[in-house]
Amino acid sequence: MRWETGFAFALIFAGAVPATAQEGAPKTLAQLAPEIDALFAKFQADQHVPGLVYGVVKDGKLAYVKGVGVQNIDDRRPVTPDSLFRIASMTKAFTALSILKLRDDGKLRLDDLAEDYIPEMKGWTYPTTDSPRIRIRDLLQHVGGFVTDDPWGDRQQVLPQDEFTKMIAAGVPFSRAPQSQHEYSNFGYALLGRIVSKASGMAYTDYVRQTILTPLGMTSSGYDAPQAPKARYALGYRWENERWTAEPEMADGAFNAMGGLQVSARDYAKWVAFLLSAWPARDDPDAGPVKRSTVREIAQGLNFVAVTNRIGSTGAAACKQAAAYGMGWRVAQDCDLGLTLAHGGGYPGYGSHVMLMPDHGVGVFALSNRTYAGPSAPAWDTAVAMHKAGLLEVRAVAVSPAVADLYALSKAAYAAGNLGPLRGRLAMNFLMDRSAENWTAEFARLKAEVGECLADEPLAPTGAMSTAFRLKCTKGKLDGQLLLAPTRPATARALRFRVVRDAP
Questions:
Q1: Is 353 within 8 Å of 376 (Cβ atoms)?
Q2: From first to last of its 504 residues, what are the pLDDT tens digits of the chain?
C-alpha cells in the first residue's frame, strides 16, 4: 500500500488521534465482564455446548478468565481455568513455530524440499509435469496442492506412525499443482510433524514439550489426552438427535501435529502472552524460548490474499478484511482492531478459537467440549467490545530524532509561511512535486482558514521515518503527515496538511 494514496492518507489520520471510549461505555475489563459473559453464554446455549472456558490476555497477563458449564455431563464436574481441552487446529501454531525454531538452529531451511526429510514422498506423481516439488514453506502455508480434508483429517489423529509411513509411500491424490492456491490441509501439517521429528532427532511431541511447553511453564499441556488427570479432563461430546453423545477419546498418533494438543486455559494464556510479547520490535534482550523476530514471522501472510468479512456480529457492517494464511495463523488487517492473527480449532468433541491483536498486546481465546463448536464469534465480539470501550490501547511508536527534527522545521515553515526553515533539508523530489511558490500559496490558504497554529498534540509516528500530527490553530485544527526519504542526513520527501472538519 502506497502512502501517497488518498485511502492510506485517510487511514494514517484516522490513527493519529487516540481512540476514546464511547460515552457511557465501560472503562475497565472488570466493568466489561458482564457483556463478555453474555456473549459466551449465548454461544453456549445456541450451540448446545456442555462446557466452555474463555480468557482475555492483556499486557502479558491472564486479565480475565471464566469457566462455565461442565467437563462431563455424567458427574457434572464444573469447567474451571484448569480444565483440559483439546485445541484441535490451534495446535498448528505450535507446529509452525517448531519448524521456525529448527530453521533458526540450522536444522532445516524453509525452502528445503519436504522429501529431503520424508523420503517416501520422492516417488509421488505430481498433477502436472510442470508442478514444483513441495517445499517445507508450502506445507506451512497450505499451498502444497492437497485437498482440504476436514473432517477426515481430524479422525486420523490416532493413526500409528508406521501406518502413516505407508500412506505417504503410497502417494496421495493432488487437488491442484503445489504453490498455485491456498487449500487448508491437515495432512500437510501431519507431514510437518514428521519433518520436526526427522530434523530434531526426537519425537515431535518431545520436541514441542522441550522447546515450547516446558520453557513457558505449560506443565499441564500435552498430546496424549486420554492419559490426562480425569478430575480435570473435559470430555468431548457431539450434539445429535437433541442429546449429547460422548465422542471417542483419541490417543496420540501420527496426525498430532495438526490438532492433538490438549491445554488448560491457564496454560494456554502463557502461550498467548509469549506470542504477544514479540511485538513491538525492540532492543531488549530476547528471553526465548524462540526469538521475537521469529515469532513475528508467523504473521507473514505471503500467499493468496482474500477479502473477507470480520467474524462475529459486527462483520457485515465493518469494513472488509484483507486476509491471508501466515504460518499456523490466519492473518488479517482489521479497520478497528489493526493487525489480527487468528485460528480456529474443530475436532471430534471440541471446538476452539484464538485471536491476537499484537498492536494492542491483547489476545482472546475460548475452548469448548462440543464437536466443531468453535467459539469464534464471541471471541471476536469480545475484541470489538474492548475496542468500543477504549480498552485496546495502541502501543506507542517512539519518535525518532530525525522525525522530531524535521517536524519542528515543518512547523516553523508553516509559521513562516514559506519553506525557508526547511532549506537544505528537502529531498530532491520535494520541490519537483510542488514548487516553493505554490507552497507559499498553500500556507496562505491554510492560514486563512484555520489561522496560526500555536500548539500541537503528541506525534503519532508510524515508524522511524514517518509520522502523523495534529496542530491546534486559532480558528481550527490541522492534521498532517510527514514522510522522510531514505537519505543521510534525513530529508523530507512529503509534507501534507488537511483541515479538520467539524473538529470537537
A1: yes
A2: 333 333 333 333 444 444 444 556 668 999 999 999 999 999 999 999 999 999 999 999 999 999 999 999 999 999 999 999 999 999 999 999 999 999 999 999 999 999 999 999 999 999 999 999 999 999 999 999 999 999 999 999 999 999 999 999 999 999 999 999 999 999 999 999 999 999 999 999 999 999 999 999 999 999 999 899 999 999 999 999 999 999 999 999 999 999 999 999 999 999 999 999 999 999 999 988 999 999 999 999 767 999 999 999 999 999 999 999 999 999 999 999 999 999 999 999 999 999 999 999 999 999 999 999 999 999 999 999 999 999 999 888 899 999 999 999 999 999 999 999 999 999 999 999 999 999 999 999 999 999 999 999 999 998 999 999 999 999 999 999 999 999 999 999 999 999 998 744
**pTM of this prediction?**
0.91
By DSSP bridging, strand 453-456 and strand 460-463 are unpaired
> What gap in Å lies between CA 223 and CA 421, rounded to an integer?
65
Which of these, 450, 456, 476, 452, lies nearest to 408 by C-alpha position? Answer: 456
Measure Cα distances from 61 to 65, 276, 362 in Å.
11, 10, 9
Q: Rounded to an integer, what distance in angstroms lies between the CA atom of residue 303 and that of residue 145?
A: 13
Mode of pairing for the β-strands spanning 491-499 and 476-485: antiparallel
Cβ atoms of 395 and 359 within 8 Å: the answer is yes
Domains located in the chain, CATH noted: 23-88+221-238+252-388 (3.40.710.10), 97-200 (no CATH), 401-499 (3.10.450)
CA atoms within 13 A on the CB side of 67: 18
Q: How far is 194 from 213, CA to CA, in rounded Å?
A: 19
Of 343, 349, 342, 341, whose CA–CA distance to 368 is shortest?
349
Region of 377 (left: φ > 0; alpha: ψ -120 to 50; beta: rest) is alpha
Residue type, 297: E
C-alpha grid cell, residue 354: 484464538
